[in-house]
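Encoded backbone
================
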Amino acid sequence: MNVLTVEGLDVGTADLQLVSDVSFTLVAGERVGLIGESGSGKSLTALAMLGLLPDGVRAQGSVRLAGIDHDLVGAPERRMAALRGDAMTMVFQEPMSALNPSMRVGDQVAEVMLLHGTQADRRAARAAAVEVLDSVHLPDPERLARAYPHQLSGGQRQRVMIAIALANGPSVLLADEPTTALDVTVQAQVLDLILSGVAERDAALLFITHDLAVVATVCERVLVMYGGRIVESGPVKEVFTNPHHPYTQGLLAASDMAGTGGRLRTIPGSVPAAGRFPDGCVFRTRCPNAADDCTVAPAWTESDGGGYACHHPVAAPEVPVLQVRERAVPDLPGRRPPPSSRSGTCSAPTAAGARRCGSRGHRCTRWAACRSTSRPGSGSGWSVSPGPASRR
């Protein structure tokens, strides 16, 4: 069952088109990644879904949420305020700017429950807030509930943001680069919390990030965005091993997952200013395959559970640039971790070119959720390492 359906979403100002014809669905319990360079329109898409666009920016199209009897696009603020923080919530990249600096963190968690009526009174809400803070593994939650945001570390503040987002059991969680500002070991812990939180509630997750290794760890499906458009989508394994769009191929080549051992590749040129993308294919001014017909917007081509929008798709490589090995789905709360996790031995095979594991000091293909430091509730869907072609 689709819990979120986005159809033909456009975002723009009076004279600039910032996001164009974005369509996708989220199913209950599904984890979907949204990737692309800065300026591609990822965060703007999420803000449009929540009705949080800045003044002068307007959205058109349709965003429907299961259980809500009206379209979210164009809905009055009174209706949007009733569902934000309840049916659909968001974890922002920088918690210090998202949290109220003059309000104790426990009161901020309690406030979201009081506003949506999930707790009867302030006393009950404060008690529930301590329980929620404990559920995100904050040490001594009763004491930290009385602290102000500036008294917490970056990782602790992000845990508070996750607690606020999950407090009312949302059906959709939007996570906008929630681990970017954190060191790698804290990233693993925050990813663990997000995964276990959505698993407990059977919530859908839209995870916005620049980090393809995190997408491979966290997500089942991926949307690739450029120039305010979805240019490719599909299962993570298919998109990462057999990309069809030249932009997706460029992102993978430029990522540190390829393990080339030399200088990282780059995508020629730079992302145009917002709303200044070329007509037709938005990637044509940077694309090595561009031709005269690219001045016309390409149609969407269905492929392998997803699709792409390109006149000249990339040919399938004889040997995948990346080898993506399927792993078990994330361990749900209460499920016993695998033997390698219980023994404290990392179960991930090492590979040259993969990220260095922050906790063990070795090169690990599962750096973002290493089982050597995991608890029940952590894990990954895929492990990514360089294919034979990338090592030559």
Q: What stands out?
A: Residues 325-383, 388-392 have pLDDT under 50 and may be disordered. DSSP finds 13 helices and 13 strands in the chain. The longest helix spans residues 184-201.
